[in-house]
Amino acid sequence: MEDRIDEAKGRTKEAVGALTDDDELRREGKMDRAGASVKRKVREGKDAIDERVDDVKEKVDDALHDDR
């Protein structure tokens, strides 16, 4: 969610920078968008790892119950 806010903020800064011919504001907007992209990829990676951990936990739990 935070990455979407940063993405929108970056796009807004870029648009205002383009309208006002403010190169610094455009650069800030690009940096906000780049940060949003990194946050999104980190979140996606964490979600994938969490899924794998849950799969392993389930397999271990199943193996422990099968031995009884």
Task: Note down, in words, how this protein is organized.
This protein is mainly alpha-helical and 68 residues long. The chain has two helices and no strands. The protein has helices at residues 2-20, 23-66. Helix 1 runs antiparallel to helix 2 (23-66). It is rod-shaped. The termini are far apart.
Question: How would you summarize this macromolecular structure in one to three sentences?
Answer:
The protein has 68 residues and is mostly helical. It has helices spanning 2-20, 23-66. Helix 1 packs antiparallel against helix 2 (23-66).
Based on the model shown, name its key terms.
0% strand, 68 residues, mainly alpha
Strand content: under 5%
Categorize the overall geometry. Answer: rod-shaped
Number of helices, where a helix is a run of at least 4 consecutive DSSP H or I residues: 2
- SSE-based structural type: mainly alpha
Please write the string of helix (H) and strand (E) elements.
HH
Low-confidence segments: none
Helix content: over 70%
Q: Helices, strands, pairings?
A:
Layout (H helix, E strand, L loop, with lengths): L1 H19 L2 H44 L2
Helix pairs in contact: 1-2
